[in-house]
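Narrative of activities, Objective 1.

The group set out to show that a structural description can be obtained from nothing but a protein's sequence at a throughput compatible with the screening campaign. Below is one input-output pair from the validation batch, recorded exactly as produced.
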Amino acid sequence: MDATLCIGSGACAGSSAHFRMTQDGHAEPREDVIVADDTARDAAECCPVEAVTVSDTSTGELIAPA
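Output recorded for this entry:
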């Protein structure tokens, strides 16, 4: 997650338990490394500023957003 891009829409936290909203109104990941499950991909797809991305750790290939 790129915290510098986050605008605090809450879409990622609303779609995935991997993210939470902070007291300052921005999102942050709950874990250092997040498994690329369906909810992580959903969070990346619904972020309006593409602050959340999902990549393959072995190749660096972007999985989401598509």
